[in-house]
Amino acid sequence: MDQIDYKILSILHDHARITVSEMSRMIAMSQPAVTERLRKLEEQEVITGYRADISPTKLGKYTTAFVLFKSNNCKEFEAFSEAAPEIVDLYRTSGEYNYLLKVVTETSESLAAFLEACNAFGFSTTLVVLSTRFEDKSLVASHEAPNISIASERTKRG
Predict the structure, then answer these.
(1) FRET pair for 92, CA 20 to 30 Å: which of 21, 42, 124, 152?
(2) How high is the pLDDT of residue 142?
(3) C-alpha 16 chain-centroid distance
């Protein structure tokens, strides 16, 4: 991957519905060249999908929590987790807890009911989110800034 691929990924992260023609203008490349790069990034599974960001509060979901969970029966807990609409992210972790869950519910009461249902599979520690500074930060943004800095330094040196 080169800087152009990183630029394409950065644009897609921020604007998943952008047209190829718009992207072509932004990075000063022909549409066929951008289309070919997109195809290669998809084939290599660098791009694994395109999605819409959906506002939980617009869907009546006002409570977000992270739950550290310890289970002695991981298969059953994973099956429960896949079926539970409250769990939006599930991570297998090392350490004292087996899992880290991101849970989104309507209210703190519905969060409590969800946690009660989880008790059948083990025990947990819950961290309720009070505010969110940012989410889903771009994974490719860090590849752009250093090169801009290097280019700036070269320009300064002459």
Answers:
(1) 42
(2) 63
(3) 13
Confidence (pTM) = 0.80
Tell me the C-alpha to C-alpha distance, in Å, between residue 55 and each of 48, 52, 59, 91.
22, 10, 7, 22
Q: Does residue 97 sit in helix, strand or coil? A: coil
Nearest to 46 by CA among 89, 1, 103, 88: 1
- Distance between CA 146 and CA 20 in Å, rounded? 26
Burial environment of residue 117 by CB neighbours within 10 A (0 to 12, 13 to 18, 19 or more)? exposed
Question: Up-side HSE of residue 100: CA atoms within 13 Å toward CB?
Answer: 7
C-alpha span between 13 and 51 (Å, rounded): 10
Are 89 and 102 in contact by the 8 Å Cβ rule? The answer is: yes
Smallest Cα–Cα separation from 121: which of 152, 53, 75, 157? 75
The amino acid present at 143, given as its one-letter code, is H
Handedness of CA 6, 11, 16, 19 (dihedral sign): negative
CA distance 136 to 52: 12
pLDDT higher than 90, residue 85: yes
Q: What's at 14, amino acid-wise?
A: D
